[in-house]
Automatic annotation (TrEMBL):
Gene3D superfamilies: Spore Coat Polysaccharide Biosynthesis Protein SpsA, Chain A. Pfam families: Glycos_transf_2 (PF00535). This is O antigen biosynthesis rhamnosyltransferase RfbN. Keywords: Transferase. Residues 4-110 form the Glycosyltransferase 2-like domain. It comes from the Bacteria. GO terms for molecular function: transferase activity. The keyword Transferase applies.
Length: 129
């Protein structure tokens, strides 16, 4: 049976030689041809464990979808850590696997995503980090 956590863990298990693991959903539209390079760039900092790309609303998105993308994704890059919990609350662990990358060593150290989850596996992992 499909579930977001288990399915992604299976994909990671099949990518044996990657230091950075990238997830991209079928409906994500990359902003430009450098999007993946820009996402991976942040891993030059050894303290970075995960990165997610900004999502923009689709051209035909309804007002609620437009608001959700604008609310959840800053126009500026943000590095967050446990030190931000008091200020940002739950937004500290906001992460989206629609377009995301994880440092494999950290992903494996934390035993990957929860196996039986239909959503929020990305935020669950960010909270463990």
């Amino acid at each position: 049976d499909f579930n977001h956590g288990g399915t992604r863990n299976l994909a990671v298990a099949k990518t044996l030689d990657a230091d950075v693991i990238i997830f991209l959903t079928q409906d994500a539209i990359l902003a430009d041809s450098d999007a993946i390079k820009n996402l991976v760039y942040y891993f030059s900092d050894p303290l970075i464990a995960a990165v997610c790309g900004r999502q923009f609303p689709h051209k035909d998105a309804n007002p609620l979808a437009v608001h959700a993308r604008n609310f959840n994704y800053s126009s500026k890059s943000i590095v967050k850590s446990k030190a931000d919990i008091e200020k940002l609350g739950i937004k500290t662990v906001f992460m989206s696997n629609s377009f995301a990358a994880y440092r494999r060593s950290v992903f494996e150290e934390l035993s990957g995503f929860p196996e039986h989850t239909i959503l929020a596996e990305d935020m669950f992992m960010a909270a463990k980090m």
